[in-house]
Amino acid sequence: MERVKIAIIGAGPAGIACGIEAKEAGLEPVVILEKAPHVCDTIERLYRPNKRVDAVYRGVEVEPLGICRFETESKEAFLERIKSWLEKYKLDIRLNSEVNYIKKTPEGYEVTIKGEPQFLAEFVIIAIGIFGQPKKPDYPIPKEVKDRVFFEPPNICPAGGKVLVVGGGDTAAEVASFLCPKCEVYLSYRRPQFFRINPVNLKILEEKVAEGKVKLLLGTDIEKVTAEDGLVRVHFKDGKSDIYDYVYYCLGGSTPKGFLKYIGIDFDLEDRPKVDEHFETNLPGVFLAGDIGVPKGSIQLAFNTAHIIIKRIKEKSKK
């Protein structure tokens, strides 16, 4: 097995920031393990061309604490920024390396990849994010329409058709605005008004609604989905139903609870992983960075968790 000071799981913004902070703190060797064939998989895969990468989330300004910081910019500019950081700091990133298990041993944490123990780490930082696991509704989706129901934002707009977007956050607003030039778009949200959309996205959405390009279905909750003549019939809890060509669920991501519980991390009464002020879990030396450590945080906040975690690891290394 390869011995390392820190094993970082995930090469998204939080994981990369952890690697940079560790490098600057003189903590070596450090390895970053990423299951995808490229870094920043969520942004690379789910963000369409020229989509904004926001530094601010829900209008809340976050003061940068460490090395990594940025202003709101396009997907392409942000990925170019990440690329320049990787070149500057020469991080050791192993792609196509999905971690299956972490086990505490007398010598450190044994990190298993594809069923084989490959690393022995003194510290482990889990920075796998939440958007790799999109939330799905409780009701089943009929197999006959699985090719018409989506749980990730589209990169290409359908040539036309009647579309239902489900959700009340930034992704739902962006998807509705993106689809409406070519499609008849309806946006269903279970609450009577939006409260989670950032000001820029809300302004754009309101303009589309005023132009009649997006129709809002506020205060609507979906009971089930059925197939009808190859299309999707959506049944609402108020007894109404309608047929759509496509349905896009934008319900956010979910914490990878199964993996975290499997390796022994404790959860609180609200079913969130327990961490202290340094984002350290009940497993000594195992930390959570980014979205799984700070619910519904921004990328800048993820960068800040990296700074806090590495500072703590450096303190613990001196003892």
From TrEMBL:
<dbReference type="InterPro" id="IPR036188">
    <property type="entry name" value="FAD/NAD-bd_sf"/>
</dbReference>
<keyword id="KW-0285">Flavoprotein</keyword>
<dbReference type="InterPro" id="IPR050097">
    <property type="entry name" value="Ferredoxin-NADP_redctase_2"/>
</dbReference>
<keyword id="KW-0560">Oxidoreductase</keyword>
<dbReference type="GO" id="GO:0016491">
    <property type="term" value="F:oxidoreductase activity"/>
</dbReference>
<dbReference type="Pfam" id="PF13738">
    <property type="entry name" value="Pyr_redox_3"/>
</dbReference>
<protein>
    <submittedName>
        <fullName>Oxidoreductase</fullName>
    </submittedName>
</protein>
